[in-house]
Amino acid sequence: RQPQFYLRVSTLLAAGLTSFLCLTYRENHCSTYNHLIPLCGISAKVEYLLVKGWKCYLFRPWRDDPCPVTAVPMTSAPRKISSLVAWNSNGFNFKEYAAQSLDSRTNAGVMIIGEHLRSLRNYHPAIPGYRTYSSPAKTGFCGLCILVQSDIGAYEKPTGVPHIIHLVVTNLVYGEVWNVFGVYLQSGSSHSKTRKSQLLPLWGVVNDLLRKDPLAKIAVGGDFNLPPEALSKIVLKHTNGALVMPNCTGSRFSRFPGRGKLSAIDHWLVSKDVQLQRSNLKVHREMAWGYNGLSDHAAISL
């Protein structure tokens, strides 16, 4: 059962809501009201926007789908994930072309973008050929999203927190199912304890997955804002070594390339079954600000 109805959406909110609710624009159903509708307790400016500054959209809720926005039925042939990429973009405006260029070099099946700085009032980060699963930016949080190639099946599982996105990736060869987590933790040298507490929901889900299937394919990537030594101790403590940090081919450092003091705060954590398949982690320094002004973080691919 899929009832449908029309919504009037303010032009100020249309960019975010049309993507978030999967609305379809209906120009022929736009209203021609020339008067203001009196709304108790709402300013005249807001009244004007509600009546004159809105567009009409068609909404079709998927009642039988537990994930109405993120669950996408797949009809293409099963495929293999070529690579997994994580990048703190420091905003996404004008950087989708750089992300497309990175995709052409890595053929990334899944791309994690941290700090995209886009709230629900803005368009979600998007790249042609990818679907977006986004955690919008808000006060104290700069936004996180995961982009998945359109021919790969995926659905989002709620984590209860904005700084972690959990995707179950399907429609893969050999019937494989991957659990991919995008992470973007609180930045700042004074928030070390905050970052550790933000990771607690992750360990609970990961350990539960490994209890059910010791060979589960798990990959956790993003900006942890933690150096490798500190993160390794945390991972060992909470997963008993079930997750490991892959070795890099070349440099482990993913931030401030070219400076005298380098630091690695972007990481991939993978289960041991994934480590056997993808033992090398590559740092794409061309994505960092020291080279072309894109970001102060390099991208890392697995």
UniProtKB/TrEMBL annotation:
Residues 108-281 form the Endonuclease/exonuclease/phosphatase domain. It holds the Pfam family Exo_endo_phos. One of its GO terms (molecular function) is endonuclease activity. The keyword Protein transport does not apply. It comes from the Eukaryota. Residues 1-26 form the signal peptide. InterPro entries: Endo/exonu/phosph_ase_sf, Endo/exonuclease/phosphatase. Keywords: Endonuclease, Hydrolase, Nuclease, Signal. This is Endonuclease/exonuclease/phosphatase.
